[in-house]
Amino acid sequence: MDRGGCQMSGGGGGGGDRSGPEESGMITLEDLESFSEDQLSDSGNGSLEEEAETMEDDEQSDRLLQYWQDVARGHQVEVAQDMAEPINQLTSNNSGRSTREHIPFTLLSRKEKCGELLYEKRHYEKGHWACITMREDTYEQSICYGFMKIMRYICQQNSLGEYLGMTLPIVTVVRTNENHSVISNDVTVAYFLPAEHQAQPPQPQDNDIIIEIWPATTVFTRPFSGPTNEVTIINQISAMAEQLDSPGLCINDSFIVAGYTNPAHSNRQNEIWFLERR
């Protein structure tokens, strides 16, 4: 497999010829905390914590895996049986027992209108990212399969053999044609290494995942809520371009979608990032 590059400074990638789907196609770490009582409890009674305490480890792992498989099936994605352990491990670590780091940045400026934030200009320092570029048949498949590989790396399939910790946001690098009407299914999923692993990043066992140093970068970022799919991404790129005073200062064919909350949430919090040319 051609692993491709995923630097924050953008990159190539030919445009596809598919129209956008109507549903969110991205499965993220936040899915692991989206279980309602009805999803994990036959009776719907008791808290998630109480339910987990009464379940055998194997039973809990099976039910978590089943939930992921049901979600993914709607996007023509198969979740393999060997995903049970990383799904279970991430659930345990992220249920109040492991904090999440936010990728550090310096706020340079903000543009508002009538109290509404139009965009922020931020500076991100260089850092190590684990990233994988997928080229599946559809945009959704590329994101889902890429993220599952990243999950395995975070949980155990790394040179330390241990859970590395979670950072937010998880980002996807999307590439478009010249007029921003089509998104390529050549999609990069990237995970920022936690602070304790930045100096010596654990190496992935999966050869498709690469560790890269992304250079210091200035981005223009605009928040939006709701699902992320090809249609909404194209719309957000257009909306952001209209707000910028000088859109020509930014890279024109690669953009970043940053996800902070569960994609199944009715008010999911996301950002679209434009990368300033260096």
How big is the Rg? 19 Å
Number of E strands:
11
The biggest sheet amounts to: 9 strands, antiparallel
Structural class: alpha+beta
How much of the sequence lies in strands comes to 25-35%
CA-to-CA gap between the ends?
A: 30 Å
Low-pLDDT runs? 1-6, 9-54
Per DSSP, the total helix count is 7
Overall, the morphology is globular
Order of helices and strands: HHHHEEEEHEEEHEEHEE
Helix content: 25-40%
Q: Write out the strand line-up for the largest beta sheet, numbering strands in chain order.
A: 2-3-9-11-10-6-7-4-8
Question: Roughly what is the average pLDDT, rounded to an integer?
Answer: 77
Characterise this structure.
The chain is an alpha+beta fold and about 280 residues long. Helix content is about 25%, strand content about 25%. The chain contains seven helices and eleven strands. The strands form two sheets. The chain has a nine-stranded antiparallel β-sheet, with helices on one face. β2 (about 105-115) and β3 (about 115-125) form a beta hairpin. α3 (about 55-75) packs across α4 and α4 (about 85-95) packs across α5 (about 140-155). The longest helix has 17 residues, at about 55-75.
Features:
two-stranded parallel sheet, disordered N terminus, 7 helices, single chain, 11 strands, 278 residues, 9-stranded antiparallel β-sheet, alpha+beta, 26% strand, 27% helix
